[in-house]
Design goal:
Layout lengths: L1 H11 L9 E6 L2 E17 L2 E4 L5 E6 L6 E2 L4 E5 L2 H36 L5 H33 L2 E3 L4 E6 L6 E2 L6 E4 L4 E8 L11 E6 L2 E18 L4 E8 L11 E18 L4 E2 L5 E9 L2 E8 L1 E6 L2 E6 L7 E4 L10 E7 L5
Parallel strand pairs: 1-22
Antiparallel strand pairs: 1-21, 2-11, 2-15, 3-10, 4-6, 4-9, 5-8, 6-7, 8-10, 11-14, 12-13, 12-15, 13-14, 15-20, 16-17, 17-18, 19-20
Helix pairs in contact: 2-3
């Protein structure tokens, strides 16, 4: 292709041309795989963001954390007055001990009854009655053990426990306040599993997958580039803006990124088929919206400009994709094309072997 352009110039450029020939610079279209860099803005959100509330109503006796506190899963965050629950739990524990002692005595009597029955020193009905009493005492113990476990659970529910590692974003209660079940008392946000939520134009839905390269830039860290990957695409189109949600994951083990931060994600999209591209300056547009280019053609002993209608596609940086209308071997006028007329003589003063020059 480069040789073709040079031969064209040797034949038509070097001869002296008419005095009114317009000086122009020409290029040849490039056909190559299309790699698109799609920059979009998103916001970091937490995978876990919980409004914690008590499981029982009661009086707050101690709040162990404040806004900004970093906590671990299992930490006690808030304690409530559990005096009555503790009394009920102790009463249930005593009942279990009593039932266990009664069962032990019943089992002793049953064993004695079996021995005496073998010696025919006790009626069979008495021995059977003792066996039945063991089963009754066992059932009573099981019931009281269940009641005790319930009392323990009620007692434990007077504590609010951290369900995951995170940071307290809001404290909504203080010591001495009465709170009811369902009332939010703390907001807890995980900073370990953050995702960047980005709204992507719908036409890119089939082009993005988990293998798409993503680079993330944050204003808070201007000298750093974060490598990321697509975690999920939400297959629901936002009708009002014709976009879909893409969630991007990146490493935040240092906890430098926090929920609510904005960031710019650049998706590198490799299109499968080769495309023809031209610099933006080579593309002309009429008032009707029709796009065209000027190409150089040899006619008799001179070089003239010809208008060629083309269909354009995506614009990537300074390059425009030509979808149809332009033969790949065309000599396209890049500079000096602003005031040309169809058939006008031109003087090629420079050539750009690559359209990216």
């Amino acid at each position: 292709m480069q040789l073709c352009l040079l031969m064209f110039c040797m034949v038509y450029v070097f001869p002296l041309l008419a005095a009114n020939a317009v000086p122009v610079t020409v290029i040849q279209p490039q056909q190559e795989p299309l790699t698109e860099h799609l920059p979009l803005t998103g916001t970091f959100t937490s995978k876990r963001n919980a409004a914690l509330s008590p499981r029982v109503s009661g009086l707050v006796t101690h709040v162990d954390v404040d806004a900004g506190s970093r906590i671990k899963r299992g930490d006690v965050l808030i304690e409530m007055d559990a005096t009555l629950a503790k009394i009920d739990m102790d009463r249930a524990a005593a009942a279990v001990s009593e039932a266990r002692a009664a069962l032990d005595e019943a089992e002793r009597l049953a064993e004695e009854g079996r021995r005496l029955l073998k010696q025919r020193n006790i009626p069979e009905s008495t021995a059977l009655s003792r066996e039945a009493d063991v089963r009754l005492k066992q059932a009573a113990l099981t019931r009281l053990q269940a009641d005790y476990r319930q009392r323990v659970e009620v007692f434990e529910r007077h504590k609010i426990i951290a369900p995951f590692n995170g940071v307290v974003s809001r404290k909504l209660t203080e010591d001495g306040e009465w709170v009811d079940t369902g009332t939010a008392v703390l907001n807890l946000v995980s900073t370990e599993e953050l995702r960047l939520d980005v709204q992507v134009p719908q036409e890119y839905y089939p082009l993005l997958d988990e293998n798409t390269l993503v680079r993330v830039y944050l204003d808070a860290f201007p000298d750093e580039v974060f490598q990321a990957h697509i975690n999920t695409k939400v297959p629901v189109n936002t009708a009002s803006v014709r976009t879909f949600l893409v969630r991007v994951l990146l490493d935040n083990h240092d906890h430098n990124i926090i929920p609510g931060m904005s960031a710019r994600a650049v998706f590198t999209i490799a299109h499968q088929n080769d495309v023809v591209t031209l610099p933006r300056d080579a593309i002309m547009k009429k008032a009707t919206g029709q796009t065209y280019v000027w190409i150089a053609e040899a006619k008799d002993d001179k070089t003239i400009a010809r208008q060629l209608r083309v269909k354009t596609g995506k614009t990537l940086a300074n390059q425009v994709v030509i979808e149809s209308g332009l033969p790949i071997d065309s000599i396209v006028i890049l500079k000096g094309n602003e005031t040309l007329n169809d058939g006008q003589a031109i003087n090629i003063i420079d050539t750009s072997i690559s359209n990216k020059d």
